Amino acid sequence: MTKVWFVTGASSGIGAAVVDAALAGGDVVAAAFRAADAANAFDARSEQAVGLVADVRDREQVDAAVARAVEHGDRLDVVVNCAGYGLVGAVEELSDDELRDQVDVNLFGTQRVIRAALPTFRAQRRGVVVNVSSVAGRVGYPGMGAYDASKGGVELLSEALALEVGPLGVSVVVVEPGNIRTDWAGRSMRRAERVIDDYATTAGASRDFFAELDGHQIGDAAVVAGAILDAVDGAPAPGEVHRLVVGSDSHEWIADHVNAEVRELDEWVPSSDDGTQG
Q: In this structure, are residues 7 and 42 in contact, taking their beta carbons and an 8 Å threshold?
């Protein structure tokens, strides 16, 4: 059965790979772009392509774009939240505005799209929400506190959402890629304006690392897109959130982190209900 998709962040990276793969499969794809020329170019690709202008920071634009996708497809089957960017800088270096904008795009933007899509999903009693998070949503990294916090928020938002919409027939998938060859570490990466010398070997090293990483990441956006399409085609059961850990690097980092957490939990097992440690 042909699906109707709504995808944000469609101009590059994972978002662009998802829309290409869905179109190649014969599905209808409504893709959101910030620039009108990009939306128009996408709209001209085929009858199955619907180019829309929507900045995820703008609720009215998001609402209108999702409504247009539903109108065009006469339903909505899948929403994929890909819009986002990275911000590198030590926690102390971050200004209020820098942190606020990071969270506004990566977390609030995701929630705005979900909020716009859920009335249709609830009426249909079916639908899939795909939230593209990151290994950074599970594992903290020096210099990436803002990005980690925004993606960690996506993770927990998704967990709560899955429990809320599961009884309504709606599924939630969270994607946790590692380093993928996109513009994320290059032209899309932002850097905190303030630089503190004491963080040269931590946050400063991350600044250098991501600059050198750009274009040399081991992961392929098309592979991530394929995993997303496979998950959606597999009709993930509503209920608990479904996680897609994509990439050997992401799998290794998350496994190490989870194992360390389990060891720490084992060290703090209470021996009584009042919390006394054994």
A: no
pLDDT single digits (tens) 52-100: 999 999 999 999 999 999 999 999 999 999 999 989 999 999 999 999 9
Question: What whole-number distance in Å separates Cα of residue 266 and Cα of residue 255?
Answer: 16
Q: How far apart are CA 25 and CA 3, in angstroms?
A: 9
Angle (CA) 84 122 108, round 5°: 20
DSSP-based helix, strand, coil % in the chain, nearest 5: 50, 15, 30
* Token pair for 162: 């899955």
* Alpha-carbon distances of 6 from 84, 168, 216, 273, rounded to whole Å: 16, 20, 29, 48
Among 11, 133, 134, 158, the active-site one is 133
Residue 221 and residue 166: Cα distance in Å, rounded? 29
SS3 call for 169: coil
151 is catalytic: yes
Q: How far apart are CA 191 and CA 204, in angstroms?
A: 10
Q: pLDDT tens-digit profile of 232-258? A: 999 889 998 999 998 888 889 899 999
Q: Which member of 147, 158, 171, 250 is catalytic?
A: 147
Query: Which residue is catalytic, options 3, 11, 150, 151?
Result: 151
Based on the residue annotation, tell me whether 133 is a catalytic residue of this protein.
Answer: yes
3-state secondary structure of 154: helix
Q: Decide if 147 is catalytic.
A: yes
Count CB atoms within 10 A of the CB of residue 172.
Answer: 27
